[in-house]
Write a structure and sequence with these properties.
Layout lengths: L2 H11 L4 H20 L8 E2 L11 E9 L3 E10 L4 E9 L2 H4 L3 H19 L12 E7 L3 E5 L2 E4 L16 H11 L4 E7 L1 H12 L6 E7 L3 E8 L4 H4 L15 E5 L16 H8 L10 H4 L1 H18 L23 H7 L7 H11 L8 H32 L16 H17 L23 E6 L1 H5 L3 H10 L5 H7 E5 L3 H16 L1
Parallel strand pairs: 2-5, 5-8, 9-12, 12-13
Antiparallel strand pairs: 1-11, 2-3, 3-4, 6-7, 9-10, 10-11
Helix pairs in contact: 1-13, 2-13, 4-5, 6-18, 8-10, 10-13, 11-12, 11-13, 13-16, 16-17
The structure holds adenosine-5'-diphosphate.
GO molecular function: ATP binding; D-glucose binding; fructokinase activity; glucokinase activity
EC number: 2.7.1.-
Organism: Tuber magnatum
Length: 520
């Protein structure tokens, strides 16, 4: 078989069919329910204690800090109250020695960065009066057991950090203690997960005032947080729920961090090709984060590497090129997913972009790559990227369905009336109708379509991450798969409005600090 024929065969193996999308959505809905009742084995469905999303009118000055992997970022956000904001930030690399020290050393270093920043940009806030203190949102990208909007106990360190005495401690309290020791006018108001930050940032900046439903990240990893009804989070609200901190119940909602990267670790419905199995076996955590391993930037390059290696073994792919033992192609985890984006974007007839990129990223001399070889790689790339996008539609569709956003509300409350008032009014109209022996003048004719003002309202989704932002056609393929879900179809898909929400850990964290401030 020709190289192109072989690559096409692999691409067919990687196809994620409409039927698979439907089964994926069904399984996602099952595991979502499970996670809302108990801490689901696959998806943890973590309540975030964030009980409302912004509508763009929020105002004020807030601080945000972000302790991710290598850097510590401090920023202040001025929310102008008209969906716009201004952000000032500083960034510093975390000294390696502090990553493996003790909690006082690390957190006093962080507090010192906050002190420097506030000293330069917000010296006007130095005041004895707590009313003037700055509220801070703390984005902390390590596993925590969150018990309140500003309280979370560190479960374990990841990403090269190892500070044993911090484990089991409330990281907000650790930071607050060091901030207080420096006499800073700053209150650590909220502990923030980056997906929740994405959701909040999008909700503040997106046009229309319906509020954003979902924040989703497709970057190094993938995860999503969405607005859920409190009474569906039974592990938190049922009489038998324990270890639940205080939260505001007035909105009847709470943002839930799904941790969907580990959707279907059991592989009940996820596709499992030879290339996925090769990746999982060589990973540091086999059998874990199985959805993420098929979708996000950290893994797509490695899937491609496996597919190329496998083709190379079975066919004459790159047989006339020199590929060193220690080349990128022979080194696990060394292909960056940006390579896939460049190749996908190649529209040249002679595959010159693909060849150049293979030379640049994989060190294979472009002049030794034939058109067939380049086309074969391009076919593999397209299949891997498209599958990632179609898989990404699964959680989006499931959450839109689960939250009832597709169906019209049973009743539409108007100003000053609650649902009880409306049902009382309806009873009144019915009594009146009977009394006058027919239809009340306001009632629609029987064949008129039911009023449905939510029908055309957009369902807003904020996304972030290099894969969704830069992979050519990613959103288009997500949308195609959304249309394959019967509950959505073309009509539902069209109602979904997707937009990039940049800076979840800046403006998003500031907005969560604002929500937290309102709760105190
Ligand atoms: P993070 O998720 O770590 O905050 P990003 O959203 O930038 O950061 O995601 C980084 C991931 O995206 C990496 O795995 C990288 O390989 C991948 N990536 C970087 N550039 C691109 C691109 N142009 N197209 C697709 N993926 C990319």
């Amino acid at each position: 078989m020709s190289l192109v024929g072989e690559a096409t065969k692999i691409a067919e193996e990687l196809e994620y069919s409409p039927e698979q999308v439907r089964r994926g959505v069904k399984e996602f809905l099952r595991l979502t329910d499970d996670g809302l009742q108990n801490d689901g084995r696959d998806m943890t469905m973590i309540p975030t204690y964030v009980t409302s999303v912004p509508n763009g009118t929020e105002k004020g000055v807030y601080l945000a800090v972000d302790l991710g992997g290598t850097n510590f970022r401090v920023c202040s956000v001025v929310l102008n109250g008209d969906t716009t904001f201004t952000l000032t930030q500083s960034k510093v690399a975390i000294p390696k020695a502090l990553m493996v020290s003790d909690s006082h050393s690390l957190f006093s270093f962080l507090a010192k960065q906050v002190a420097d920043f506030v000293g330069i940009h917000h010296s006007d806030h130095f005041s004895e009066d707590p009313e003037h203190h700055l509220h801070l949102g703390f984005t902390f990208s390590f596993p925590v057991d969150q018990r309140a909007i500003n309280k979370g106990y560190l479960i374990r360190w990841t990403k090269g950090f190892d500070i044993p005495d911090a484990i089991g401690k409330d990281v907000c309290a650790l930071l607050q203690k060091e901030i207080d020791a420096l006499g800073l006018p700053v209150k650590v108001a909220a502990l923030v997960n980056d997906t929740v930050g994405t959701l909040m940032a999008r909700s503040y900046t997106s046009p229309g005032k319906t509020g954003t439903l979902l924040g989703a990240i497709f970057g190094t990893g993938t995860n999503g947080a969405y607005v859920e009804k409190l009474d569906r989070i039974t592990k938190m609200t049922s009489a038998s729920a324990n270890d639940v901190g205080e939260y505001d119940t007035s909105t009847g909602e709470m943002v839930v961090n799904t941790e969907w990267g580990s959707f279907d670790n059991a592989l009940n419905v996820l596709p499992d090709s030879l290339y996925d199995r090769m990746l999982d076996q060589n990973s540091v955590n086999p059998g874990i984060q199985m959805f993420e391993k098929r979708v996000s930037g950290m893994f797509l390059g490695e899937i491609l590497r496996n597919a190329i290696l496998s083709m190379k073994e079975d066919t004459r792919l790159f047989a006339t090129s020199t590929i060193a033992e220690d080349s990128v192609l022979n080194t696990p985890w060394s292909i960056d997913t940006s390579l896939l984006s460049y190749i996908e974007a190649d529209l040249t007839e002679d595959y010159s972009v693909t060849k150049e990129q293979l030379q640049k990223d994989l060190g294979i001399s472009a002049s030794t790559i034939s058109n067939d070889e380049a086309q074969a790689v391009k076919i593999l790339v397209h299949a891997i990227g498209k599958r990632s996008a179609r898989l990404s539609a699964v959680p989006i569709a499931a959450i839109v369905i689960a939250t009832g956003k597709l169906s019209p509300p049973a009743e539409t409350p108007t100003d000053g009336l609650n649902l009880k008032d409306l049902s009382f009014m309806e009873q009144g109209i019915e009594i009146l109708r009977r009394a006058i022996g027919g239809r009340s003048p306001a009632a629609p004719p029987d064949d008129a379509p039911p009023p449905n003002i939510q029908d055309e309202e957009p369902i807003d989704i904020g996304v972030d991450g290099s894969v969704v932002e830069f992979y050519p056609g990613f959103e288009k393929y997500v949308r195609e798969a959304l249309r394959d879900v019967p509950e959505l179809g073309e009509k539902g898909e069209k109602r979904i409005r997707m937009g990039v929400a940049k800076d979840g850990s800046g403006v998003g964290a500031a907005l969560i600090a604002l929500v937290a401030k309102m709760q105190y």
